[in-house]
Amino acid sequence: MSEVKLVVDYEAHEAGKTMSEKLEALAASPESQSLTSLIIGDWGGAYENDSAGAIEALVRLKESFPALRKIHVGDMSGEECEISWIMQSNVGPLLEAYPALQSLTVTGGSGLSIEPLAHDNLEELILITGGLGKDVLASVAGARLPKLRHLELYLGVEDYGFDGGIEDILPLLESGRFPELTYLGIKNSELQDEIAISISDAPILQHLQTLDLSMGTLTDKGAEALIASAGVRKLDKLDLSYHYMSDAMVRRWQDTGMNVNVSDQQEDDEDYRFPYITE
Question: How many whole angstroms separate alpha carbon 124 and alpha carbon 103?
Fold first, then answer.
């Protein structure tokens, strides 16, 4: 696989360089024809400039990247830009422009939309945020993605953009919505107990292989529902890492014989429970 990461660092941004120019240069190179994976890092002042220019350029230059199968928009370190400060835009046009795309990852939820969210070949959708808007959740729930196998959503917290509730998550748990789905990650949430309780008897468990509820505020309350679930016990893998479960509950999971990750136990204080990624 041929992969390239493009970044407009601080000095380049101050000098007036843009991500569009970087993409145009890449499109003009021989490498563009065989490029399979493209990572868009900081497009220059991502805390104040959104990704629209980069998205527009990628769409405009689509004929230059015939082999592209994987795109990540917003891959930045905390020093470059905190996740919740990354200004995104509508990334939906990428799906229209690249019909052979198999994987789309977006980091940063501020200003994010994915319209239209429909694709015949996308197998993996990952949204990494400190706060995912309920409008984006609605887009995902209503998406037409017949080949989707991997769905990973970092929900985050209200202070950084999560404005939904469990009612906005429940549609994702319906059977048949994504018929090929084998991995579901609904993670990094301050509603992790509610999610765990809801998913413990959800129809979608029937065809999942991996359930990822990691990086959130899961306590014994949610864990009780999961450990009692016949559907959960049939999973190939369960990820509950970074959690607020008690020592006793951790031991109960270890005694199940399941392939379950209960690492990174947090010190439980009911007034101070936070998901792994917020700001």
Answer: 5
88: tokens are 């995104």
Buried b (16+ CB within 10 A) or exposed e, 251-268: ebbeeeebebbbeebbee
Q: Which residues pair with 186 in a beta bridge?
A: 153
* Residue 118, CB-side half-sphere exposure with 13 Å CA sphere: 3
* Burial category of 248 from C-beta neighbours within 10 Å (exposed 0-12, middle 13-18, buried 19 and up): exposed
Q: Alpha-carbon distance 191 to 157, whole Å? A: 9
Rounded-to-integer distance, Cα 58 and Cα 123, Å: 20
What single-letter amino acid sits at 150?
H
pTM above 0.85, yes or no: yes
> Considering only CA atoms, which of 120, 92, 105, 81 is closest in space to residue 3?
105
Encode pLDDT of 191-224 as tens digits.
Answer: 999 999 999 999 999 999 999 999 999 999 999 9
- CA–CA separation, 90 vs 250, rounded Å? 41
CATH topology assigned to domain 123-279: 3.80.10
Contact 199, 222 (CB under 8 A): no
Query: At 1, is the secondary structure helix, strand, or coil?
Result: coil
Phi, psi (deg, nearest 5) at residue 151 = -125, 120
In 40-151, which residue ranges form alpha helices assigned H by DSSP? 52-60, 92-97, 134-141
